[in-house]
User: Fold this.
Amino acid sequence: MGDPGRGINHLREGHGQIIRTDGTSLTDCKFYYENVPANVLFLTKSRVDFLMAAIHHDSLTPDTSYLIEMRLSNQDKDPFHTGAEVGGLSNYYFGPIAAEGVKAHERIIYPAVYDSTDVHFYYGPSGPRMAIVMRPGADPSEVKLSFAGQDSIHIDWQGALRVYLADRYVKLEQAIAYQVDGNGTVTPVNWLPQYVHEVGNVTVGFEYENYNPAWPLVFLAGYPAMPPPQGPGTTGNLGWSTHMPSAFGNELTSVEVDADGDPYSCGYFSYYYVPLQLGTTTSTINEPLLAESRCGMVIKFLKDTKQIRWGTYIGGVESGETRAHKLALYLGVDPALKHVFVTGSTNSDDFISAARVNTAYSGAFTEDHIGGDCRMWLAALRMGSGVRDWATTHGQPAPDRTWNTHGLAVTIDRNGRLAVGGMIAKGFNTDVPQFPLVTPAGAFSRALGDGFLVVFAPDFTIEWSTTLLEYSADARYGRINDMRTTTTDGDHRGLWLVGASIQGTSEPLELMPPPSGGYFQDVAGSLSAVILQVDLNNHQIAYCTRWGSPGTGAGSSALAVHETADYTYVAGFTQAFDLTTAECPPPPTGTLVLNSHTNQTTNSNQTSDGFILRFKNLSGYQLDYGSLYGGDRDDIILDVTGDGSGNVFFTGESRSSGGLSFNTPGDLYLQWPLTAVNKRDAFITGIRDLEYPALFWNSAFGGTNSDRGWGIAASPDEVYLCGTTGSGYFDDFPLLEWNTDPNDPNSSLDWYWDSSPSGLAAELIPWVTFYQAQDYDEFGIDAFIEGLNSFHDGFIASFNLNEDVAISDLAGTHLTASIEALPLADQSGYYLKFPSEDTWQINLYDASGRLIRRATVTGRTFIIGMADLGQGMYMLQATTVGIQIGSKLVRP
Assistant:
C-alpha cells in the first residue's frame, strides 16, 4: 500500500520536561507533538491525551488546564513504536528538572489496535496528521475512537472533527478517507461519523461508502496547507528569513557566528514549543503546559542547511520569567572551553545553578536564586550539543527581595577570560543595593552604581566584581549594555564596556581622561552615553568618558561595541540637537555618504537619532569619526558587528518615514521604510572599515507592522540578522525559505516558519528602558502610538556576501524630507507630494520587486493610478539628482 503520509516530522520524546500546572513532571508522557493547537501527549498502550491550557496574565484569574482523553481501542494493546529518528536535539533546564539530548522521531505507530488496523501519528507538509490504516481483511466498522472529558463532538462544515470542552475544542481538520490500489492510484471514499453517547464519554465510529475490501483503506485527519509566502522589497542577497514563533510572544535578542560560520541565537520564548526538527513547518503553535510564563532559549543553526542543530531551554518551573539577553562564543583552541556563554535575567525562584563535574567548570561559582526580585544569570552550553555544563545566578543575598540585577552583556576572549555586565535596578523602595563585591589587591571598587562588572578567573570563580557608573536610585536607566575584550593587544589586557549613566547623582562617574590627544567629555546631557575600558591585568579603569550633548538636557546611551583590527566602533542613540564635529568628527578624507552631527527628527515627541562612533585602536583613545543615523522620527542603533573582511554592519529600528537615504548598489537586499508614523522598521546598514568609512548598504527590513533588529553577526560570506517582528504572514514580512538544492526550488531542509502565531504578549521591549527612545509606553508620550501589549515573534534572516560589495561612487544624501502619499477617496491611487520642485523619476514595484510602472514628473505633485492593479503591497521609488527616496503603497 502507499505510505499514508510522510513529511516534516517532529515528535519529541518525553523525559519529564512536560510540566503540569502544579509544577510537577508529567512522567507518563512518552512522546508529544511540538506544535499543535492543543498539546497531544502520547502515553502507553492505546491512549492519547489532548491537553489545553488557558493562561491568564493577571494575578486574579487562575490558570486552567483542560484534558480530553482519546483511546484508540477499548483494549490495552501493545505499546506503540516509533519511526526513524530525526535531527534536532533539545535540552531542558527547568528548575530541578534536567532533560538533555532529547531526541525526535518521524512518527509514532500504534500497531494492531484492531485486527489488521494500525494508527500512525506524524507530521505532514502542513502540520500534524493522524492516519488510521485498515489493511485488507480489516473490518472498518470495528474501528472506533473513544473520547472522555468533552462536552460535545461533531463534524463541522469543513469536514473537521471537533471535540469540545468548555469553550475550547480539539480539532482534527480535513478528515478524509481514501484507498490505494496495487498501482498506487488513490481513490476517495465518502464517509460519515457514527456517534454513541455514554455517560462521561463519546465513541465515534465511521461508516464508509463504496470501498473495495481488497485494497487498504485510510482515514486521515490533519491540518490544511498554508498559503504561499510573500514579502516586500527586492530579494537581493537575502538567502533565508523565518519567523521563530511562540504562543504568547517571543524575541531573538542576540546572534553570533562561530569559526565554521554556524550562527547561534538567544532570546526568550513563551514556553518551550519551538519545533527543533528538519524541514519546513507551517503548523500552528502550542498552547502551554509549563507553568512558567517565559523561558530563555539558545539555538544553534547549521550554516549550510539552516537546520536547527540543537536548542536549549532554561528557566524555572514556578511561575516567572527567564530571558536570555546576550551570548558570546569561545573561539580559542582549548577544547574544554568550546562553549556558548549566555547571560540574562530571571525571576524564577527555582532557577537552579549547576557545575558539571569533570569539566572546566567543576569548581565554578554557583548560586541559586536566593534573593532579589530578579537576578542576573549566566550559563555555559556546549557548542556541539547545547548541553549545560555550568549555570549560576548572581545578585541580592537571601532572603531580601528589594533590588534586581540583569545580565545584559557577556564576552570571553581566546584565552578563556570571561566577563559579564549589566544593570542594578533598585525599584521603588528605600533599601540601598548591597552588590556583592570581590576586590583583588589594588583593584577599582565602588559600592553603589547602576551598572556592574563581574570578571571570572580561569577556574570560573569570581576574580573581580564591582559596580560602575553613577547611582540613580529609582531611575533604572544607567547600565552596562555591551562589552568586548580587546584583541589588538597581544596580552588581551583591555575590556571595552559601553552603556549609559545619569549625570549629577550623589555617586559620581569614574571618569578617566586619556593621557593626551584622546577624546574626553565630562558633561554630556542628563543621560550620557558612557564608554570605558578596564585593564584586566591590574583591575583598574584605564579610560572612561561620557559622550552626548555638550549641554545638560538631551539624553544619550551607548548600546553596542565592536572591535576590528584598526578601530573600535560604538553605537547607540542620542536625543541631542546641539552636537558638534567634536562629538561627530568627519572622516579624514573623501566625501562620505553617512556623516552628520545634526539630529534629523522633526517630531517634537520623537527626538532620537542613532549614532556611530569610531575610535582608533592603540592611539590614545582618539575619536576619528562619528555620525548620526536617522530621519524625521525616532531611530536607534542596537548592535554592531564586523565580517573580518573589511565590512562593519549595524542594526536597530527606525520610525522614520523620511530623512533616510536608501540607495543600495548591486545585488544587496533593498527595502524602503514604512510611511506609517506609528510603526517601526528594522534596518541593516553596512560601511567599509577603511580610513574613509564609506556607506555601501542601507536598507529597511520588516513588514507593515513594527519590527526591531536586535542583533547582527557576520562571517566573511554571510550576515545574520535577528530580532522581533509584529508583522505576520499577511503583513508582508520578507520571508524566504533556504533551498539546499539550486536545481530543486521546492527542496526545503531548512528551518522555516511562514506564519506568525503569537498571541498578545507583554512589552515589546522587555526589561530594557531606552529613555524615551522608542519606548513610549513607559513614559506616556504618544501613548497610543503602539499598545504596550502587542503581538510579536522572533525572527532570524541571513544575507549572502559572496556578491561584490566594493565601494562605488554613490549618489545620495542624508535627507530631511520624504514623499507624502495620500490615498484617493475611491482608493484608486495616491496623491503624491515630493519634498521639492524637481524632475522626478518615478518607479513602482510590486511585492516581488518587478517594475510595473514608470513615469517622469516635473514639479512637486503627482497622482499615481492603481485601479488596474491587484491587492497587495507596492514599493514607490522617486529619484532626482543626488536624492533617492521611497514609500510603501497599499492597494486595498
